[in-house]
Amino acid sequence: FHHKAERYNHEIEDKLRHQITSPPKQVMARIKHSNYTFAGRTKNGERSKVSARAVKVITLVSGAGFFFVMLGLFLPVVTFTITGVVGRLMREIDPDLAERDFNVPAIGIQVGEGTKRDVAAQMSSYFFQVLFFISCVVAPLIQTPFNLVLLHKAFSLRDVRTFQWSTQIITYWAAIECLLVGLVGLAWQAQVIVEYVADLVTDDICSNIKGVLETLAVNEEDAICIELRPSLGVGVVPLVFGILINSCCTAAILTISSAVAQDRYFKAYYGLRHDSKPEKPGFIRRKILKRVTTRTAHYGKDDNINRPGSQRLKKELRKSEGNRSSPNPMFSSASITFAAHPRESKKTATKLAPKMNFPRPRANTRDISSTDIEV
After folding, report:
1. Rounded to an integer, what distance in angstroms lies between the CA atom of residue 266 and that of residue 112?
2. Quick one: average pLDDT of 197-206?
3. Which of 10, 24, 296, 336 is surrounded by the fewest CB atoms within 10 Å?
4. Alpha helix (H) ranges present in the chain?
5. How big is the CA angle at 110 (ends 108 and 113), to the nearest 5 degrees?
6. SS3 state at 371
7. For residues 68 and 143, what is the distance between their CA atoms, to the nearest angstrom?
8. Could you read off the pLDDT of 105-125 as tens digits, one per residue?
9. Alpha-carbon separation of residue 17 from 11, 48, 253 (angstroms)
């Protein structure tokens, strides 16, 4: 909705100014982020370009992060061990019942089987099950492919904004780190919750017979009604590495994409729309852009910026290159160079003037009349 409102405002502005009848070429052209050159220049005349080396590193690291996430999803992330009187009875029935391992999809399946009392409770369980699979399985797996497509595929300006928005939505939904935080909290407070629920259900009978159980029990583990011991599995380690890697790569790719989109918009609509100037990036974005870009002296198609006077100056420069032997000093390369740098001091201009042989202005010998003064 925001993009539609913004597009509508731009169309109204273009109609009022009567300047844009069709989208500029910079908007419709399909350009890759991986080899993009920005419009701004440094004091030395250099430009910033997305580093090919940084793109390769981001691609390889993103692939490693995808591998770690996929490995961690299907390895056990939590193990539940039941001890006490209930655990001993379960081991007598089936040794595997007292200790169970769960990976991330298995936890999602158990979410849907939470209750079967009525239709409303089942629908609620299925709803949370769908949310769990989207945020903990689907979104983490498709996050890396979307990032790599955004980095390497050529997009038009409108398409890159849409795809960047989609990538951000997927990044927000990929919340497997929330599951890990919940598992850590569960391992820390699970026994407290189990004791509270057992006393609530049995009307404090488990707490009252604890002394009797300690006297009769052979092992210390069986001197309690029920005890739940959750422990983190081996799948937590690759998940942590995958989450950290994906977070860093996603931040870098989205920063590059946002900077490229703003720069392309600046090239296309500079002087034509009021919001063409890019916003100043924050501290973290500046650091990221500094790491993923390199400086290059580039003079090519990207030099076509719609700023006032740029085309006239280029024509004069081309004319000066073709008329180096012209006796007219106004078409010499020195005069054009001096005109291209209007901030030169008067002292420098005085030193350069004899070498460039500027023609002296003719003196105005006409007398000033009273008519001229009144006018």
Report:
1. 50
2. 74
3. 296
4. 2-17, 25-28, 52-73, 84-93, 104-112, 119-133, 139-152, 157-173, 176-202, 205-208, 210-216, 236-269, 283-292, 310-322, 333-339, 346-356, 370-374
5. 120
6. helix
7. 13
8. 998 888 877 666 678 878 888
9. 10, 32, 36
Q: Model confidence over 4-54: pLDDT tens digits?
A: 676 666 666 666 565 555 666 767 788 888 888 888 777 777 888 999 999
Alpha carbons 169 and 159: distance in angstroms, whole number: 15
Q: Is 350 exposed, middle or buried (0-12, 13-18, 19+ CB in 10 A)?
A: exposed
Q: Which residue has the tokens 């982020």?
A: 33
What digits encode the pLDDT tens for the residues 231-248? Answer: 888 999 999 999 999 999
Type of residue at 68: F
- Looking up tokens 């931040």 gives 251
Tell me what pLDDT residue 225 has: 78
pTM here is: 0.68
Distance between CA atoms of 193 and 114, rounded to whole angstroms?
17
Residue 37 to residue 263: CA distance in whole angstroms: 9
Buried b / exposed e along 127-140 (16+ C-beta atoms within 10 A): eebeebbbbbbebb
State both tokens at 99: 């200790």
